[in-house]
Amino acid sequence: MSCRKWQIQILRWQEEELDRESEAALLQHLETCASCRDAADTFSQIDRILLGMPQPSAPPLLRESIVSRVIEQMREDSAKSTLSRFFGSLAYFRPAVAGIILVLGIGLGVLTGLNVSYSINTRSTSTACDVLTLAGIEGTGSDSSLDFIWTDPSGGGR
Amino acid sequence: MHAQSDADLIQALGNGDENSLRVLVDRHSAAIYRFSIRFTGDESLAQDIAQEVFLRLYRNARRYVPGTPFKAWLFTIVRNSSIDLARSYTYRKAYSLEEYSREREGTHPHDANPDPEESYLSKESADQVAQAVRSLPEKQRTAVILRYYEGMSAREIAEIMRSTVASVESLLVRAKRNLAKLLAL
Known about the structure:
Shape of chain B: globular
Distance between the termini of chain B: 46 Å
Radius of gyration of chain B: 18 Å
Oligomer: heterodimer
Number of helices of chain B: 11
Strand content of chain A: under 5%
Number of strands of chain B: 0
Distance between the termini of chain A: 143 Å
Largest interface: A-B, 36 and 42 residues
Order of helices and strands of chain B: HHHHHHHHHHH
Largest sheet of chain B: none
CATH class of the largest domain in chain B: Mainly Alpha
Shape of chain A: rod-shaped
Structural class of chain A: mainly alpha
CATH architecture of the largest domain in chain B: Orthogonal Bundle
Structural class of chain B: mainly alpha
Number of strands of chain A: 0
CATH topology of the largest domain in chain B: Arc Repressor Mutant, subunit A
Helix content of chain A: 55-70%
Strand content of chain B: under 5%
Order of helices and strands of chain A: HHHHHH
């Protein structure tokens, strides 16, 4: 066994976790190995130093500050979950809302379409569908082209 | 008196019970603070870590599996929070082994007192030991703090560090050798 492994055995031995057989083997090794004996001495010195260290005490307001911070977070989360529950409950009405939006959209579309069509029709009556325009004589200053529809009421010809 | 077990309290905390939080803070905040201050050496960072630990405890309360040793679960969170916060904090007081050794040149504790154990009784020497512990690599430091200051067994430490008992024992041996070097024993 290497000294590295014996040193792990020393650690276990100092923590009283070694069985009798392993303890006897370790003690036998320590008798012959100066390096492991030194390690055993150093380890127990370190143990005493570490265990003799003073306990740091927590600041007096630590508990209060932790509690208030976590409670603040808990309440924030609770408010968020209330909102999400409210909006979550609206999920049942989603198809109905979608239907209403669809109907409104179609309605608006139809109304808009009718309005556009009406505007186009009105404009064409005043210009394109005018009789004179259709006859192609508008603005000529001559009425001769209307001969084909002109009849003298007195019976005289022109 | 709080008769409820930690496991019951953590489950109640998961359901938003503020009183359970208070009891858990009363029971564990001091140990968490002690670990953090030894781990970082910075009081305000240690307080932040303690706060962060309880926030994580609350957020993860529902993930706690009943039957899991509570202390191991708690200290896993403590260790992770300490590592995360110390890393992100502007705090950079921790010395590397080399820096620490360089700084200690000429201030050998044996110089003032030939008995090394007696010399560590003074505040100054206690500070030196604390600083030496903080200068250990993270895993060795965690193992030492949990073993010597929280009185945990190698098995418990292994559970917290998600490691094996053999690796923890090896960490402790290396930590002791490093401490001996740092403290010039």
